[in-house]
Design brief:
The chain is about 15% helix and about 50% strand. By secondary structure, the protein is mainly β. A hairpin with a 6-residue loop joins strand 12 and strand 13.
């Protein structure tokens, strides 16, 4: 019987404030999954850190501890490993899929144990070492230390399914050196949807990309201005989530109630925000694009009205000419007699 593999990515809990404390969800009725968690620790017990955070020079070795807990009522054996982090298209924090090799902090982080056996409601403290290569690039690097369990279950159609549960704690490393914090706005486009009469809506799309080497979030706003200087601000936008170096997020928003002024300038402004605990000075990012905002429907109605008026005037003129020409001809005949 073929063995299918289900990657239970929804079980990888990485909320910023509770990433290190969130256990895998409790099982549903009839489900054989267990409940376990991962969090930073001292050599003897879990501590209150929300994540692992370090600043080190190239070539340094950082040693620390991770607590792996079995919250359930059944014994369990868990795999322990580290994996590189990346941003999802929505700006979320995620780790490489199981089995995909790491090349950054995930590869530099080595737990002392590849797996741990946990009796019910027990905790194991696992030491690990983070060895920064001598040629590590300056700036921020991110990964996660993962506890994973793979179990074989039977699917709805009777097939065997390998289900992987995994949870993790974030690891943030800042390698000392030249820092270049920067957010860039790319791919800025816009369009205008006019109404027959009155104001219309401008739709603006863009990508915010972390082109620097430090973690950054940000505050964003969009406005649309007319050639004569009036400006309409867009609705309040949610903050840009923390982007890792190279990370990006795509944004689309609509600015409503904009006059069809022939052409418009849509402007996107982003104020970068450094990662918690850092005070990097970062320049704002701003880009603009020109939109065509011709009220074609209204112009079409106006054109029809003008054509109607022109046709009416032309018809009246023709009628006047037709009414006067016979009189002039009769006058000529009278003179000849």
């Amino acid at each position: 019987m073929r063995l299918a593999v289900l990657a239970a990515a929804f079980l990888l809990a990485f909320a910023p404030s509770a990433a290190a404390q969130t256990p895998a969800p409790p099982p549903a009725a009839g489900d054989q999954r267990v409940t376990f968690g991962v969090r930073p620790a001292t050599a003897t017990a879990p501590d209150n850190r929300a994540s692992f955070g370090y600043s080190a020079t190239p070539g340094a070795v950082v040693k620390d501890f991770v607590a792996v807990s079995n919250v359930g009522t059944n014994p369990v054996t868990l795999k322990i490993y580290a994996s590189d982090a990346f941003n999802t298209p929505e700006g979320g924090f995620d780790l490489l899929a199981a089995g995909k090799p790491s090349v950054d902090v995930g590869a530099w982080t080595k737990p002392d144990k590849a797996s741990v056996f946990l009796a019910p409601r027990t905790v194991s403290i696992v030491p690990f070492a983070l060895t920064i290569p001598a040629n590590a690039t300056p700036g921020d690097h991110a990964a996660g230390i993962v506890a994973a369990l793979t179990t074989e279950q039977t699917g709805a159609n009777g097939q065997k399914v390998a289900v992987e549960q995994r949870v993790g704690a974030r690891v943030y490393l800042r390698v000392t050196g030249d820092l270049t914090p920067r957010l860039a706005i790319t791919g800025l486009t816009g369009s205008y949807a006019a109404t027959p009469f009155g104001r219309g809506d401008a739709t603006v799309s863009y990508t915010v990309r972390n082109t620097g080497n430090t973690r950054l979030s940000g505050k964003q706003r969009v406005s649309v201005s007319t050639p004569w200087g009036s400006t309409v601000d867009g609705e309040a936008l949610p903050p840009i989530p923390e982007l890792l170096p190279g990370g990006l997020i795509k944004v689309t928003t609509t600015v409503r109630g904009v006059l069809p002024a022939g052409w418009l300038d849509a402007t996107v402004h982003v104020d970068p925000v450094p990662a918690p605990g850092f005070t990097d000075l970062v320049q704002p990012a701003e880009e603009s694009v020109t939109l065509s905002a011709v009220p074609w429907a209204a112009l079409g109605v106006l054109a029809v009205l003008l054509l109607g008026i022109f046709a009416l005037l032309f018809t009246r003129r023709r009628r006047r000419r037709g009414a006067t020409e016979p009189v002039e001809e009769g006058a000529e005949h009278a003179t000849a007699l």
